[in-house]
Amino acid sequence: MLTKAEIKRIRSLGDKAGRLAEGVFAVEGEKMVGELLQSGFTIREVYRTGENISPAEMARISFLRTPTPVLAVAEIPTSHPAEMLPERLALALDDVQDPGNVGTIIRLADWFGIHDLYCSPATADCWSPKVVQATMGAIFRVRVHYVPLDKWLPRVAAKGIPVFGTFLEGENIYSCHLEPDRGIIVMGNEGKGISAETARYVTRKLYIPPYPSTSAPTSESLNVAMATAITLSEFRRR
After folding, report:
1. Helix (H, G, I), strand (E, B), or coil: what is residue 183?
2. For residue 82, what pLDDT is reported?
3. Which of 93, 162, 188, 212 is most exposed, with the fewest beta carbons within 10 Å of its own?
4. How many CB atoms neighbour CB 115 within 10 A?
5. Which residues, 6 or more positions from 117, have their beta carbon under 8 angstroms from its beta carbon?
6. 213 vs 74: CA distance, rounded Å
7. What DSSP element (H or E) covers 101?
């Protein structure tokens, strides 16, 4: 049986401040917890309906509309991005704020073999329950680092590593030359795109044209997760 204090502590993991204070995050669902158990992450607690808590208690600690039979609490891994530069193709998110988009992008990174994702501090917290669930387990295989991009990207560019970004005035992604396994691909905010501060360090501007290329776009822009999928697919196709 859970105490009120335990329930309050677990519920606090729905907020970034609570996660940072404890250094842990919540994982729900048989599949997700199963992947967590295989991941090498440090697990603090596992709660299972019928074993150590009741359905009513699970409903109180769950972050889902329909609670699953299992919820785990695991430690947030640490990283040191300031000292590390990517050796292979990597992604960077410049203030992407929708948790669903961030979760989907982490899932895409996993699918396309991207091992490192660098996020600006204003990007949605990847350890929030919404992002974790949206990754469908990819969060356990993609390393996520939070770092000020305007301070980190100059170091990347200084090493001769290409920095790509999507812009309306960029090169047609389908016809330009791409190195399929080298560089940083920056994806911008849902409404504002890549910020001016970050854009200064983009060395290759890319453009995803509508079809046919001579027509005017029928939508204002692509969703950032959709644009990420197209961009990664094109890099991996080469």
Report:
1. coil
2. 59
3. 212
4. 15
5. 90, 91, 92, 93, 105, 106, 109, 126, 142, 143, 144, 145
6. 47
7. helix 99-111
Nearest to 159 by CA among 184, 188, 186, 187: 184
169 phi-psi bin (left φ>0, alpha ψ -120 to 50, beta other): alpha
pLDDT tens digit sequence for 127-186:
999 999 999 999 999 999 999 999 999 999 888 999 999 998 999 999 998 887 889 999
Most confident of 6-10, 51-55, 157-161: 6-10
Provide the CB-side half-sphere exposure for 34 (13 A, CA).
6
User: Amino acid identity of 89?
Assistant: L
Q: In what order do the strands lie in the sheet with 70-75?
A: 24-28, 70-75, 43-48
Q: For residues 54, 59, 65 and 70, what is the CA-based torsion angle, rounded to 10 degrees? A: -50
| Amino acid in the structure at residue 183 | G
C-alpha closest to that of 13 among 132, 166, 182: 132
**CB 126, CB 98: distance < 8 Å:** no
* 67-85 CB burial, b ≥16 within 10 A, e <16: bbbbbbbbebeeeebeeee
Are 26 and 132 contacting, i.e. CB atoms less than 8 angstroms apart? yes
Strand residues in the chain grouped as ranges (E): 24-28, 43-48, 70-75, 90-94, 116-119, 143-146, 163-172, 184-188, 204-207
* C-alpha angle 88-173-116 in degrees, rounded to nearest 5: 25
